Amino acid sequence: MIILDGNEMLNRQELHRYLKKQFHLSEFYGENLDALWDELSARDQLTIVFLHADEAVDALGPYGNALLSLFRELVQENPTVNLMYELPSSIDPARKTC
Fold it and tell me: Which domain holds residue 57?
């Protein structure tokens, strides 16, 4: 289980450093969402608990939304991946809790 804290995601650079540490990504991780997808889509039996996801979205704006979309797509593509997070309906009215 990987626990992510949105309060640690202050900007893109900090986000990718934090994700590299939390997910134990390879030394070749390219610190962008495409590289994150490449690393995570190759994994099985992964549970991601994303605490304070709203803080990440607030800090990162559209990039934070893109990160959430990546995690959602990962769950859709791989049935062994689970994602848990909660957002206020004002941020993501279509998907408040996952």
Answer: 2-85
